[in-house]
Specification:
Number of domains: 2
Number of strands: 2
GO molecular function, one term: DNA binding
Protein name: Transposase IS110-like N-terminal domain-containing protein
InterPro entries: Transp_IS110-like_N (IPR002525), Transpos_IS110 (IPR047650)
Largest sheet: 2 strands, parallel
Distance between the termini: 80 Å
Strand order of the largest sheet: 1-2
Organism: marine sediment metagenome
Strand content: 5-15%
Length: 200
């Protein structure tokens, strides 16, 4: 029995409220089973909202609904027909609910993915710096044990080419290097950097 036509609802608080109203309009407060696809991360907030409201929710792997759609007479791939296929799987009890990770597991997964993206972005930035720095100042490679360290990056922010560095006052350069390295480098390192710029 179809109680309502499929409709699009936003994945936010207002949309969740609309879903709740639709469920209440059915007049059935018990024995309601809600099905949804585990598509990306979009389903999790709605799943959390509905379970907190006391509803039973079955999360389905998109592969299940795709297989059900293949068996249908009308082979359509739209949100409207996806909703129908999900409802049909629940109606016929021909589904296997996916394991829903805990909130902690979801948070850890998101943090891990974020870290991966940040590390990947950092590697790309380093490649870009190398591609620009080496042609302009090949001798820079041996000045610091880590050219992406604090002292080196502070120096490059101030002078990224030999020409720019030679225009700096030697005393100011010594102070910059000494301060950025927290006292580890002094005048000797300044002379090393200046000589590198002169020979470049």
């Amino acid at each position: 029995q179809y109680l309502q036509r499929p409709k699009s609802i936003r994945n936010d608080a207002d949309g969740f409220g609309q879903i709740l109203n639709c469920l209440k309009q059915t007049g059935r407060t018990k024995y309601i089973l809600i099905g949804m696809e585990a598509t990306g991360h979009y389903w999790y907030s709605l799943h959390d909202f509905l379970t907190r409201q006391g509803y039973a929710v079955a999360v389905l792997n998109p592969i299940q609904t795709a297989q059900q759609a293949k068996q249908a007479i009308r082979k359509c791939k739209t949100d409207k027909y996806d909703a129908f296929h999900i409802a049909n799987l629940l109606r016929t009890d021909q589904y296997k609910a996916a394991v829903v990770p805990s909130e902690l597991a979801m948070t850890c997964r998101q943090i891990t993915r974020l870290r991966y993206r940040i590390v990947k972005q950092g590697a790309m930035i380093k490649q870009l710096v190398n591609s620009r720095l080496h042609p302009a100042w090949p001798e820079y490679e041996g000045l610091f044990s880590n050219k992406f360290g604090t002292t080196s990056m502070k120096l490059l922010q101030t002078a990224s080419t030999p020409k720019e560095l030679m225009e700096l006052d030697p005393d100011d350069l010594t102070e910059l290097i000494h301060k950025a390295s927290r006292g580890r480098f002094g005048p000797a390192q300044t002379q090393k950097v200046l000589q590198s710029a002169k020979n470049s």
